[in-house]
Amino acid sequence: MNTNVWKVDKYVDNLENNPQVVDAANFLRENELVALPTETVYGLGGNAESDEAVAKIFAAKGRPGDNPLIIHIAERQQLNRFVTEVPPSAAKLMDAFWPGPLTIIFKKKEGALSEKATAGLETVAVRMPDHPVALALLKTCGLPIAAPSANSSGKPSPTKAEHVLDDLNGKIAGVLDGGATGVGVESTVIDCTGTLPVILRPGGVTKEQLEEVIGKVWEDAALKDQSARPKSPGMKYTHYAPNAPLFMVSGTREFLQTLVEEKRGEGLRVGVLTTEENESFYEAELVLACGRRAEIETVAASLYDTLRSFNQGKVDIIFSEIFPNEGVGHAIMNRLEKAAGHKLISE
Ligand code: AMP
Ligand code: MG
């Protein structure tokens, strides 16, 4: 299959009538797949009402069928078609954070969406992305769009159109190239179907921000305890892994450098994941800075790009600095732990 690359300037007016967006929307209506930029990462979009389109998403990504997809909408009223109720906490969260990097779990109306999209669950995950190109595409096609991250399952999520093509070229109808994405880690997932709101996945909106709007928010036990069964099916899978084994290192940069020396002594090519503050300190085959530690949002924005870049550098092993587990750092550490398969070396 030929994969179209539609370059779109996200700052132009009237994106809904942009010929590239219209082209992409037509493919979606024909149940083909289109990758789209969002403010978090690139998504792989398909018609959420169609079993055919949703089956193509799972096949293109190699995604396990028990991992449900997030449904993307452009207008709140679209919810009425496939959600049974909007609890007051969810309404407040939508007012405060939509469009934006917050996914909300609702009780679903039977038969309104492809069963495959929700992996047969009684609930559905929904979000409204805050990206002009994504919103224009969603409005133009008029459909609820199922869109997981546009990467092969297990690889780091794509934050640039080139990353999408690295994984999915020839497997999808096209990608709308709207430049690099902003937040860089996926949306926060919050379950509002029970008596208490529960975070299932940390992401772009922090726990503190949520609590300012709806009061006390809980966290799924599996986020702290690896032996607990996560309420969000996708959280049990290893994700985001570069090709070489990655180890998180807790300790000083001097300690990390001694680990590097040890492995170089064994003849291995070593990579170091650090930030701009420490970039010139390390000596290794490939030292990559992932944003600035002092501005933690910049780390989130470039984490996946950096993880992917290690694959080009042909290293045998990677050591990574760690980050404070709070605010956006909580989402960064959650992704880093998955990329490292929880391997941590402490000083
Ligand atoms: P991704 O599409 O890769 O960003 O992942 C979507 C995340 O949302 C995965 O962790 C899914 O398991 C989770 N998710 C989607 N739908 C539901 C649902 N109905 N209940 C709980 N988690 C969900
Ligand atoms: Mg993903």
Walk across the major sheet and give the strand order. 1-8-2-3-7-4-6-5-9-10-11
CATH superfamily of the largest domain: DHBP synthase
Residues in helix, %: 25-40%
Low-confidence stretches: none
The oligomerization state is single chain
First-to-last CA distance: 50 Å
Describe the structure.
This protein is of the alpha/beta class. The chain has helices at 19-29, 51-61, 88-97, 132-141, 161-168, 207-214, 253-265, 296-312, 328-339; strands at residues 4-7, 34-37, 42-47, 70-72, 102-107, 123-127, 145-146, 174-177, 188-191, 198-201, 218-219, 246-250, 270-274, 286-289, 317-321, 344-346. The protein has 2 domains: 4-223, DHBP synthase, CATH 3.90.870.10; 246-346, 3-Layer(aba) Sandwich (Rossmann fold), CATH 3.40.50. The chain is built from 9 helices and 16 strands. Bound molecules: adenosine monophosphate and magnesium ion. The site of magnesium ion has 3 residues, from loops. Adenosine monophosphate binds next to strand 6 and strand 10.
Summarize the structure.
This protein has 347 residues and is α/β, with parallel strands linked by helices. Helix content is 29%, strand content 19%.
